[in-house]
C-alpha cells in the first residue's frame, strides 16, 4: 500500500483550521493506520506547523482575554474606591469647586449676620422705652410690620408682598429696604411731595445708604401722619407745634437722634 501522507495530513490541517474536532480525530485515526513497508508510523506535525497552528494561537488569545476579563471587576472597584476616597491621584490642575463654594457660603453668612445686626438695631430704635426689644426673626417681623405701616401712610394703596420667614436674613433685609424705597418714591410723586422731599436728598432715594433711608423713611412717614391729623408733632421731643411749622421735624433732628442712639 502506498503511504498517503498528504491525503490524511491535508485533512488533518484542514480540520484544525476549521476547529473540526471530529475531522481531527478521523484524520489522525486514518493516518495511524497507514504505514510504508508494513511498519506503523505515528502521525506527527513538524515544529514549523505546530508553531504556526492557528487553533493554538486562537486558544491562546482566548485564554489571555479570559484572564483580562477576570481582572476587570477588580480594576473597576479600585478606580471607584479612588474616586470616592480621593487618593491624591487627581489632576492637581483640575481642582473641584469646593473652594469657590466655601467662599460663597462664607460671603452669604457674613451678609446674613450684617442683615440681622442692622435689623435688630432698627428694632431697638423703633421699640418704645420699657418694652422688650425683639431679636432674630422677631426683630425682622417687628421692623417689617412697622415699615409696612409707615409705607401705607406715605403711599396709600401700596401693597407690599409677603415675607417668607424661612428666607435667608439678607433676603428679608433687602425686602424691607425695597419697601421703604418704593414708598418714598411713590410719595415723591403724590400730593405730599413737598413735605416728603424735605427728607430726601437731591440724588434721590436710590442713592441713600440704608441708615439714611431708615431715618428719612420714618421721618417722612411721621410728618405725613401728623399732617393727616391736622397738626405736626416733633419727632424728637414730642412737643406739639402749629400746623405749617417747618422747623417741627427735620432730617437733622432725626439724624441727631440716631447718632445719639448708636453712640450708646
TrEMBL record:
<feature type="region of interest" description="Disordered">
    <location>
        <begin position="83"/>
        <end position="132"/>
    </location>
</feature>
<protein>
    <submittedName>
        <fullName>Uncharacterized protein</fullName>
    </submittedName>
</protein>
<feature type="region of interest" description="Disordered">
    <location>
        <begin position="1"/>
        <end position="55"/>
    </location>
</feature>
<feature type="compositionally biased region" description="Basic and acidic residues">
    <location>
        <begin position="92"/>
        <end position="118"/>
    </location>
</feature>
<feature type="compositionally biased region" description="Basic and acidic residues">
    <location>
        <begin position="26"/>
        <end position="53"/>
    </location>
</feature>
